Amino acid sequence: MDANEIIERRACVSGVGQSDIGRRLGRDPMELTLDACLAAIDHAGLTVADIDGLSTYPGPMTTPAGFSAAGAYDVIDALRLNVGWYQGGLETSGQLGSVINACLAVASGLANHVLCFRSVFEGSAQGAQGRSAVMPGGGGGGGGGFKASGFMEWNLPFSAPSAAIWIAMFAQRHFHLYGTTREQMAWIALNGRRNAALNPKGIYRDPMSLDDYLNARTITTPFCLYDCDVPCDGATAFVISRVDRAKDLRNPPLRIEAVGSALRGRPSWDQFDDLSTMANRDAAAQLWTRTDLSPADVQMLQAYDGFSFITMSWIEALGFCDLGESGPFVEGGERIARDGVLPLNTHGGQLSAGRLHGYGFLHEAALQMWGQAGERQIPRDVEVGAVAAGGGNTCGCLLLVRD
Amino acid sequence: MTAADLPFRILPRLTDWNRAFWQGGERGELRFWRCQACGYYLHPPQPLCPMCHSKHLAVETVSGRATLATYSINHQPWMPGPELPYVVAIVEIVEQPSVRLTTNLVHCPHDQIRCEMDLQVTFEHHGDPDGDVWLPLFEPAVSNETVGDER
Fold first, then answer.
1. DSSP characters for A86-109?
2. Would you list the domain boundaries of chain B?
3. A7-125+230-402 homologous superfamily
4. Which residues share a beta bridge with A16?
5. What is the mean pLDDT of residues B115-139?
6. CA–CA separation, B133 vs B9, rounded Å?
7. How far out from the chain centre does Cα A113 lie?
8. Is ipTM > 0.90 here?
């Protein structure tokens, strides 16, 4: 193997699948997980027997409730997979870290077709109480003898239990340094909503105006309700194949042109060296060192919007505008519209199409590049697309090319 | 502040490493482990200096002064806690700004909060059978002209 080879180019996306998606489906989360997995395998034109690798994020977790419906072993067993390589885990470059790992596994020859999945049931798990139901001391019971340790030791005692607060502080720092405004940030949410209207699986599809956004209740400044993604139930899956094994499959291979997985600051929400950027700074910079393509070549961006500001941060990190310029870049919503220079989150993002937690973006990117996105299809042919997921200290990104 | 006035807080699990930080407030002191070889403050604490890898570490008291890096005024009742809305902040201690604390900004009208403002530590004491804890909160520094007299 040539040490200078960009090894991820041996890998491609060959199929994608998704279960039913809903705010609170009340369905068995394992059923949704397997629905998505089988859909992705079928979409690739493969059978379960062809799958010889498995990768998932974040692996089995019981808290926060609904955050993970199944681990790697659950699906390996449920589908009776025989795998040459597998992994599941949280400590990687964001949700797409699991896909990057799958790319490396097929490139290295440990597997030919790796099934990747992410499955959540946060909507049902949280129930009518919303997110407070899954907080320590939430749900009305009080904290009792519970004591904070690990990274929560440094924020729970100060009543800062939510990523909404942590990311809001990054946004506030950006507002302070660059004069970014809520009127600008609004366009991440408004763009997502107008796209979700065309997505049959979208969760919030009614029109939303700038006034609706500005008048929504405050969650934690500068975030209002519509800056925060919507917990849901649903699963998403991909098949990552070695390119030489995917040429005759159902869909044209979406080759992985380059990945970004770097973390060059402290792995912490509050100790990261620059509070106006995130680890996406490092992942995106690495991606551009691994390709001759440039941001000007990218025809579509699907970028994480767990909170609206994270998408703006990705737009800057990936070089679609200068640092600090994402506010003017998204303002008015023309550039990021489906017919704009950089169509963004064309399924509605997690803000309007549900918190599928990172995987929804790659699912959407693949459908768009295959011309399978239905009513919301980007009007021009997309041959180069960027996908980015994660925030804070856990970020990863992919550049996809349809040859 | 009497015990009855205290907001509900989830307290940290005390260890030999973190007790200096969480209990320094008993004497009004903000304390960190510091490398005795190169002078680097460690936060959170760990068994050797991340800069020079020395294990010669000792607890030292800093001035309690800090600057406001960023903040968020939280309106959402995530869990029992201070009266809403309350301010969550990230502050940088003046001795070594790379040491940041997530904390609460108190005694400051919300319309007077500005990034980079000068702050000083103030402690919120919570009695607990596993060991009392003094949460280091921050308020505008007394030299800061924006501080009102109503405090």
1. EEE-SSSSSTTHHHHHHHHHHHHT
2. 14-140
3. Thiolase/Chalcone synthase (3.40.47.10)
4. A238
5. 97
6. 10
7. 21
8. yes
A44 vs A395: CA distance, rounded Å:
27
Task: Specify whether the CB–CB gap between A223 and A168 falls below 8 A.
Answer: yes
- In whole angstroms, what is the distance from residue B145 CA to residue B127 CA? 34
Backbone dihedral region of B34: left (phi > 0), alpha (psi from -120 to 50 degrees) or beta? beta
pLDDT band, very low/low/confident/very high, at A135 (cuts 50, 70, 90): low
A96: tokens are 């797409």
Amino acid at A199: N
Distance, CA of A255 to CA of A215 (rounded, Å): 43
Alpha-carbon distance of B49 to B45, in angstroms, equals 9
Q: What is the mean pLDDT of residues B2-31?
A: 94
Contact check, Cβ <8 Å, A270/B9: no
Residues in chain A: 403
Tokens of A202: 């979208």
In the block, residue with structure tokens 């042919």: A381
Q: Classify burial at B59, counting beta carbons within 10 Å of its beta carbon; exposed 0-12, middle 13-18, buried 19 or more.
A: middle
Give the B window 126-145 contacts with A, CB below 8 Å: 130, 133, 135, 137
For an interface test with B, which of A159, A162, A176, A228 has the most B Cβ atoms less than 10 Å from its Cβ?
A159
Q: Give domain limits for chain A.
A: 7-125+230-402
Q: Name chain B contacts of A159, Cβ cutoff 8 Å.
A: 7, 9, 74, 78-79, 81-82, 86, 88, 104
